[in-house]
Design goal:
mainly alpha; 90% helix
Length: 144
């Protein structure tokens, strides 16, 4: 027959392991998803910047290929507008990304840490429970 301390110990350890399992699931489903989304957003911003630069370079290349002053002005204006629009869009994308990084991912990370810490504490308490309960049941007799 198991002692009360052993039963409490096993229960605490099982609950602690369940919390560690929940924390691991939280990590894989939520925290990791935010990390991945952040990288994808960063790549999207870089792709948009590269595309805008290539389009503007194409207009600039066309400027040197023509001798018509009106067409040169038109192409230069088009290149300038593309760069300004892209710059504005890139700033908006960057601001959205900063808001994303400053909000929920930080909270999700704190939740994960709390779940994992609580699970680890329960397992440690489960390991210590028999010792603590045995110490209470065996009172030390003072020496006479």
């Amino acid at each position: 027959m198991h002692t009360k301390g052993e039963r409490v110990s096993v229960k605490l350890e099982i609950i602690g392991l369940i919390f560690l399992l929940i924390g691991s699931y939280w990590e894989s489903e939520y925290t990791s998803w935010w990390d991945k989304a952040s990288l994808e957003e960063q790549f999207l911003i870089q792709e948009r910047a590269n595309t805008s630069i290539l389009r503007a370079l194409d207009d600039i290349r066309a400027i040197s290929a023509t001798s018509d002053p009106e067409l040169k002005r038109s192409l230069a204006s088009s290149a300038h507008e593309q760069i300004q629009e892209a710059e504005s869009e890139l700033f908006d994308m960057r601001d959205r990304r900063w808001k994303l990084l400053g909000g929920q991912p930080e909270e999700y990370s704190k939740i994960r840490i709390n779940i994992l810490t609580f699970g680890a504490i329960l397992i440690i308490l489960g390991k210590l429970a028999p010792l603590l309960m045995n110490r209470k049941s065996h009172k030390i007799q003072p020496n006479n």
